[in-house]
Structure formats: structure tokens, C-alpha cells
Known about the structure:
By secondary structure, the protein is α+β, with helices and mostly antiparallel strands. Among the domains are: about 1-55 and about 130-220, Gyrase A, domain 2 (2-Layer Sandwich), CATH 3.30.1360; about 270-340, Beta Barrel (Elongation Factor Tu (Ef-tu), domain 3), CATH 2.40.30. The chain has 9 helices and 20 strands. The strands form 4 sheets. A 6-stranded mixed sheet has the order 11-12-13-10-4-14. A hairpin with a 5-residue loop joins strand 16 and strand 17 (about 295-305). Helix 2 crosses helix 8 (about 210-220).
Amino acid sequence: MRFSPLDAQHRLLDAKMVPFGGWDMPLAYPSGTLAEHAACRTGAVIFDVSHLGTVRVEGPTAFEQLQACLTNDLSRIAPGRAQYTHLLDEDDASVLDDIIVWWVSDQVFDVMPNASNTDRVVAAIGGMDTTATRAVLAVQGPEARVVVAKVSVEAAAVKRFTVEAVQVCGFSCVVAGTGYTGEDGIEIAVPSDGAAVVWKALYEAGAIPAGLGARDTLRLEAGFPLHGHELGEGISSLQAGLEWVVAWNKPNFHGRASLLMEKERGVSRRLVGISIPGRRPARDGTRVLDVSGAEVGFVSSGNFSPTLGHCVAMAFVKPSTAVGESVSMDVRGTLIEGVVVATPFVAKKK
């Protein structure tokens, strides 16, 4: 089990800790997931996302290394920008990981894999695992920049999908304007010895601590995929509806040939949203049935939506299943009705 540099801070706040991707991380604080979720939709919260990996790839060949491995095209951006991308399996184009690349400076990239996938990403792209040297704090919500500005005006000014090196509480940090909640957000990678100082400063500035529970309900409302659910073994970028991260103009990247074959023959399933009345969720693995009772797919993620006041789910279904179509889900022998809808379930405020 690995522990965040902020582990002591979570325990001081009486967080409920759970294992996640090999790390001991906060699930929720005493206020509870619903309150933390609401705080992110209306104000500002702070997540400890130090369990995400950081792989530093640098040097004169760094750009070419990443271009040859990852699906997206780094030439679409430039130093000081961030990009969402996938690492695919060579044989079947499964998404081994979905990744954010921070292009820190000319020949320096910080590649951010999911918690349990850091070793496989290093094996694929090279570089050095620097996860243990820093903490990553994510401030999310419509008031995120107002709160961060009380601690660092420079950090608060970092725009969406932009990356900058700035000072925060006297520590040299890398700050990016990305997020995973459907709200505006800022991520601060701070040296481990400064993590508690920055956390306390943001907390005192008004950021409400939030755990993995709220992070999951927020990303589900936003229709964002989670590795191990909407991405992973047997699931391609195309099935997940994420072809926009695939740069077909690149002559090669890991899994390109297999993915192109799938594109040409057509996907066997696709990811959709399902709106479900009531408070009984259809969890991952639940069978999805059409109006005739025939099985058309399965739920990949499902939960109660605090914002909407009813349940929602994402599911892989037959490609012919259309938005507006009525479906049912077999939850422990009880059929729950739902309707196929477009995602996101909760649109980001303008």
C-alpha cells in the first residue's frame, strides 16, 4: 500500500480511507459525498489526486517517443499545453490507459497515467517515474480560481489545458488547467515536502476537501470515462466514443493497425448514457435489456446523480441502440426502467 504525502492531513480531517489502485486514499470526509459533490457544483473543492502517476519524459527524443506510442498528435499543441490521449494494446487496440500529457517545456513532458498503470506506461514510453517526489492537488468548481487566487494569483491564472511552472506558497510547482468533474479546475503538482503547506492554504482559502466518492459521482454526471469501467481490457477508443483522441494522420502509434481494422469493420458495441428514474442504481455489470427483453449490453458505471436527483448509468450496448430508446436493467432479479440519453448528463455551466 502506498500513501499520499497528504495522508496525515486526511486523517486529521477524519476522512474515511480506502484502498484505491494500490494507494490508501480518502473516500469521503465527515460532511459526506453528497455535500462534497454539491460543493464542487456550486463552489470549490480540493481533491488529493497524488495517486495518479507522473512519468517524466525528457530530452531531444522525448517528443518522438510519445508520438510513436500515444494515439493523439502532440504537434496539435505546443510547450505549455496539456493533451488527453490513449495508450493502446498493440494486438487488440484495448485502451491500456487514458493519459493527460503536460508539455512542461521544450523537451520536458510529464505524462500522467492512472494509479495502477504507471509501470505499464513506463514500460511503453520510457521516462522516469517521479510520482514519489510530488503531490497533486486538484481544485475544482465554479469558484476554483477565486479560491486559488487567494493562495497564488499566478496559479489561478493558468488557463484550461495550459501548463505553467509557478510559485505556490514558496514552492516551485507545475500547474495545469485540467479536471475530471465537468467544472473548471486547476491541478497543482507540488514537491512532497510542500504538499501539506499548500493543502492547508487552499483549505483555509475556502476549498472544501472532497474524496473519491464525490470524484466518481461528478465524473459520471459529466459523462467522463473511468479506466477499468469505460476503458480497459477489450475496450477500444472507438467503442468508448473517443475517436477524437485518435490522430489517424500519424503513420503509426501503438495499436494503430488493430484500431484501424475495427474502424473499417465497425464497432460491435458503443458507450451510451442511460437516465433512470428513482434512487436505485444499476451498478457496473448489470445487464441491459431492450423492450422485447433481449440483452443488448451491460452497465459500465452507475450511481445516483446528486445534481439530477435520480440515477444515471453509462453502458456498452449494441450499436443499433438509439438515443430515446427505452431499456431495462436487471438489478438482482428486479427490472429497472431507463431511457438511452446523450451525455453529459449534467452539462458544464458556461
